[in-house]
Every structure is written in structure tokens, then in C-alpha cells.
TrEMBL record:
GO cellular component assignments: plasma membrane
Naturally occurring in which organism (per UniProt): Pseudopedobacter saltans (strain ATCC 51119 / DSM 12145 / JCM 21818 / CCUG 39354 / LMG 10337 / NBRC 100064 / NCIMB 13643)
Domain Concentrative nucleoside transporter N-terminal per the UniProt entry, residue ranges: 8-80
Domain Nucleoside transporter/FeoB GTPase Gate: start-end pairs: 103-201
Keywords associated with the record: Cell membrane, Membrane, Transmembrane, Transmembrane helix
Pfam families associated with the record: Gate, Nucleos_tra2_C, Nucleos_tra2_N
Primary localization: membrane
Membrane topology: Multi-pass membrane protein
Protein name: Na+ dependent nucleoside transporter domain protein
Molecular functions per Gene Ontology: nucleoside transmembrane transporter activity; symporter activity
Coiled-coil residues: none
Amino acid sequence: MHRFHGIIGIVLILGLAFLLSNNKKKINYRLVLSGLALQLIIAISILRVDAIRSFFQTLGKGMQKIEHFAKAGVDFAYGGIATMSYDGTPQKFEAPGSFVFAFNVTATIILVCVLVAVFYYLGIMQRIVAVIARGMNVLMRVSGSEALSNVASAFVGQVEAQVMIRPYLKGMTKSELLASMSGSLACIAGGILIVYANMGAQAGMDLAPKLIMASLMAAPGALIISKIIYPETEASETMGKVKLEVKSEYTNLIDAITHGAGDGFKIAMNVIAMIIGFIALIALLDWCLLSIAHLFNPNFDLTLDWIFGKIFYPFAWAMGVPSEDLSSTATLLGQKLTVNEFLAFKNLTSNTVPIVTEKGLLIVSIAICGFANFSSVGMLIGGIGTLAPERRPDLAKLGIKALICGTLASYLSASIAGILV
């Protein structure tokens, strides 16, 4: 019966969304059921259908190749640096298997951003997004703008996904705006997904199929939760139509490559800066908490991880995480929401916060695979606000709702996937 424990998580998540709804009478239950069915189909296809599972495993190996190609570039830049091998002896950075977080992650993000820019210039990315969005538009009967935004979020970054619907931002309803923001926070950009998959590969974890599944399930999941919390009550300008007309901003292929590399470097530096800043801040807070706790009980080691482990324990249990992984999963959920998903994945793949069961690894990988954290909300509001300044007041009001929707959407996907294992 433990297989179906995740049903408790589904009921809990949908129940919380229902309680937070601003108009319970207007909830479109057909949209909710069709979205759940779509999520289930995606999960079954990847986890149970051999041909599809093999395809995504092959795709995962391709992601590892991306890191291999990226390393060819970074080897040239940092070739004179020595690193430590697994046996503790020094070796050149160019040696196979060498890994320095800042160098390898930077190279991978830059290469993926270059590839995305090239695909964008050639019109390939727009076509892929439009085809998938049309399917979601038909199945879930959501508007074209929110379908496009949610699907695009599974491939590109938060703000880039909004650029694809820039012509519609001004006239979007508040429900559509929340759905679009929720999708950007529930999904994860392709470049970051590849980084996480390769971090897992370094630790012997086959995370690629799990993360691809999480990103695909997040799009309908975000629509489900957002449409429960903020049902549509206004007339949409794009209901029933999906029309994507995004002209490339690049002059030629070389321009696309140079812009992609520049954008990738900015993203990579931002990631490294956040990791350094947040880990240092956590160390400071842990020292303060530990010092205060020891004043009352010298044997009680109070830390943020201990606090997260208690607060998020009910969610981990409800999603069906095995008992031996409950505390660690709760800690990772807390780190992902309050700090960022990068720290959570780093602690997961480095075994700093160990997950010992296959089911626990599946559930937690999907649950933390998304941009839903407090710092991302600020970046998202700023990004969309730049594209549509007149919507800033609405964006500010919807920010926390979008964070809740994005978080619950990831938990919903994790609960569904856990039932199948």
C-alpha cells in the first residue's frame, strides 16, 4: 500500500490550493482533471514505457556529452590549474573526470546558452514551443498565452519565456499572468537542468530522465494549481488560439553565438555569486542558532537544516517518501524554497544530505526541480516588469501566490511520480 501513499500528497496539495482559492465557485474542474491526466501520462510514459524510457536515458547520456564538449572549452581557459583526483593526488585540470564546480558549471551553462541562442536564431526553438503549446491548449483548454509561456519555461529561462509572449503581456488577465509566473517558477531552464543532471552523473546518480520528466510535468502542474488558486473570471484575448511570432534579435549566426556566450556567462556568474553568498549566510545563521541553543542545552545542535527538517516533514511524508529518507527530503525541500534549488541539488548530489532509496531520490529530485524560491520571485517580477511596465502593480500582488503555485506544482508532480515506483 505504500506505493499509493502519494495519493495523500495529491489530496493535500490540491486541498491547500482549494483553501487558498480566491473564487472557489469558478474553479474549472475539467482543466484540473485534464491536467492531472496529462501529468500521469507523462510520468507513465517515462517511467513505464520501455521505448520512451530508453529514449530519455539516451537523451540523458547526450546531456553528459554536452558537459564533455563544454569541458573542451574550459580546459583551454583553465589548463594550467591543478585539481585533486579521487585518490587525493594532484592532477592537471584537463585530466578526465576532474571537476571544479565554478569552472565546469560555468562552461556547461555557457555552451547551452549558445545552443539555445542558435536554435532561437534558426527558429527551431519557437517551433518546438508552439507545437507543444498547441497540444496543451487543446487538451486543457487554457489560453494560448499561458500555454506558450508554461511550455517555453521548460526550455528557456524565466524571463526568456515571458519574451515569447511579450505582445500579450499588456492585455493578459490576472489569472493568465499568475499562470505564466507560476510556470516560470515551477519549471527549470534547459541549461540549468543539464547542469543538475551532470552533477548527479558525477555522483553516480541517473538524474537526467527524472529531471526531464519533472520539467515536462511542471507545465500542466503549474496551470492546475494556479487555476485553482486564481480561477479565470475575465475574457482572454488569446483563448483558443496559439500564435507565436517572435523575431530573432540576432543579426546572424555569429551574433547569436556571441550573445549566447555573453548571456551564459552572466547567468553562470549569478549562480556562483548566489551559491557563495547563501552558503556563507547559512553558515553565519547556523553559528548563531547553535550558539543560542547551547546556552540552554549544550547537547542540542540547532541549525537551519534541523528547522527545515521539521517544517517540511509533513510534505515529504505526504508525497510518499520512504521513512529512512523523510528527514533528509524535508531538509532539501526547505533549502530549495528558502535559498535556491542549486544549493539543494548540490547537497543532494554531494551526499551532504543523503537520500538512500530509489523512490526517495525520484520524489525529491522532482520536488526540488524548479525555480520556486524567494530570490527567483524578485527576478521574475523585475524581468516581466521591464517587458510590461504597466503590469508592475499586478506582478507585485501576484508574486507570493506564484511562489506558492510553483512550489505546490513541483510537489504535485513528485507525488504522482512516486505512486508509479
